Amino acid sequence: DDIAIGSACFNLGLLYQDQDRLSEAEEKYLEALRIFVAVQGERSENAPCVQMNLGLIYDNQGRVDDALRMHKRALRVSRRVYGDGHQHVADALSNVGGCLKKKGQPERAMAKYEEAHEMFVGLHGEEHEDVAEVLGNMALVLGNQGRGAEGLAMQEKALDIKRRTFGSDDRDIAQPLLSLGKSYVNQGMLDEALARYEEGLGIVRRIHPERNATEA
């Protein structure tokens, strides 16, 4: 076993994952993880990235329990290797929160998201895409808890950060707008929903003009 071989396996896993060849990616990631732990021990600094990517694959496959287990491992190792306040720890907290949300555990999910949010702000300040992303996830939890008004305010805050970060006509703005439109519908605020839907759809059409030609 050699770290260079583990790194090669990890890079192959990344390639397969980008190509949506998830079973092959999982195989390479597991091999990389085995090598890293065998050579460097349980506190291998290379392990958390592999564990996070495995968690994302399992989540994509609907294997939420497996994803949660792997993200928890990534969080535990990241804390030991890097300490709190590190990007890897914040990412792992957010990933654990996402799995807990899917498992119908909103209180536990919110606790992880709040901890991740605090770390992201400490790392990057308020005006950063990671901060906006976790705020959006927190807003969805609030909505699921029947706290729709609070969730809407948080979604708007997340959207404002993304506008300032990416610009108002970026692809990363379209999905939050459409999600916000749905939240306004759920609150019976149809005029606000229509405005968000139209803005989001307009961005999609400008980014993908070929779709308009096909639809025409």
Automatic annotation (TrEMBL):
Coiled-coil regions, chain positions: none
Keyword Glycosyltransferase: no
Any Pfam family the entry gives: TPR_8
Swiss-Prot/TrEMBL keywords: Repeat, TPR repeat
Keyword Chaperone set for record: no
Name of the protein in question: Kinesin light chain
Species assigned in the record: Hemiselmis andersenii (Cryptophyte alga)
